[in-house]
Write a structure and sequence with these properties.
- This protein has 319 residues and is of the alpha/beta class.
- It folds into 2 domains: 140 residues, Rossmann fold (3-Layer(aba) Sandwich); 168 residues, Lactate dehydrogenase/glycoside hydrolase, family 4, C-terminal (L-2-Hydroxyisocaproate Dehydrogenase, Chain A, domain 2, Alpha-Beta Complex), CATH 3.90.110.
- The strands form 4 sheets. A 6-stranded parallel sheet has the order 3-2-1-4-5-6. It has a 3-stranded antiparallel sheet with strand order 7-10-11.
- Helix 1 runs parallel beside helix 2, helix 6 runs antiparallel to helix 8 and helix 6 crosses helix 10.
- The chain is globular.
- The termini are far apart.
- The structure holds 1,4,5,6-tetrahydronicotinamide adenine dinucleotide (TXD).
- The site of 1,4,5,6-tetrahydronicotinamide adenine dinucleotide (TXD) has 34 residues, from helix 1 and helix 4.
- The site of 1,4,5,6-tetrahydronicotinamide adenine dinucleotide has 34 residues, from helix 1 and helix 4.
Length: 319
Amino acid sequence: MARNKIALIGAGMIGGTLAHLAAAKEMGDVVLFDIAEGMPSGKALDLAQAAPVEGFDAKLKGTKDYADIAGADVVIVTAGVPRKPGMSRDDLLGINLKVMKAVGEGIKAHAPNAFVICITNPLDAMVWALREFSGLSHNMVVGMAGVLDSARFRHFLAEEFDVSVKDVTAFVLGGHGDTMVPVLEYSTVAGIPVPDLIKMGWSTQEKMDAIVARTRSGGGEIVQLLGNGSAYYAPATSAIAMAESYLKDQKRLFPCAAHLTGQYGVDDLYVGVPIVIGAKGVDRIVEIELNEAAKAGFQISVDAVKELLVACKALDESL
Ligand code: TXD
């Protein structure tokens, strides 16, 4: 059986990390696509030279030609520009919307059967626009944000509780940004919900509130520290977990930006909700019971995404 083919549209900081992870995990052959001259081929060659040491078999190719993504099983999109200190994710909308148009047309022409994971910010609007431009079915186009945001949340919780990250699960819903909604009731250490852990004296509500706030601004904290660019190790690792669930039909349950058709009272919008990812792409949307506070937070998130889409439609009359 031929190897899977993973196309990375955007071979920058996240794209290069995606390529390294996908190749080292032998998920398939990897195509790095970028408009930058030479860089994708340089990264492909450099990674290929890591293979004998690490011991993985994967073909890697850099390209500027969309024809080279033909037949990709998975396409992961990071093309665009990242934030600089002081910028919000929404500030990227004008530039990155144009990029999504070019990428969507490339996917439509050369990889219409791929499972597409969008990472480019502002994520909730870019994944919606990418789906519109590509014309793929909604269950085959998702956005990566919730896995990253919940990973950040899980890291902070594991640090606070002094337990293995392996036993910490966390739930974040809603948009990727300050409006995200971490759900404490569904976050656990080995199945013990966080509110119970607080009652058991493992932490305090104040410390949990501070961790929620730090999770919400987790991206900005790294942008500030790096000085140029944004996070890329955890974003890439998160998207790879989603791609693996698709390629191996693992049916994992992840918080992702997915197309809603009435779930959570939302119609024809991409927003972060729990979904199951399997060989069909979005195998199903998981509707969890939200308490009043989570419902209110989720609605704020939905409204913020809707505003971004209004801005997108104003910028591109084809949307
Ligand atoms: O959780 C999330 N979804 C976010 C997403 C987490 C972190 C970063 N987030 C966003 O991902 C970030 O705000 C950016 O919008 C993307 C990519 O971030 P990255 O750090 O990888 O940016 P780079 O290193 O600048 O890489 C972007 C590449 C770069 O090599 C450009 O030459 C290329 O995109 N690019 C293009 N490729 C193809 N086609 C077009 N038109 C194009 N324009 C730029």
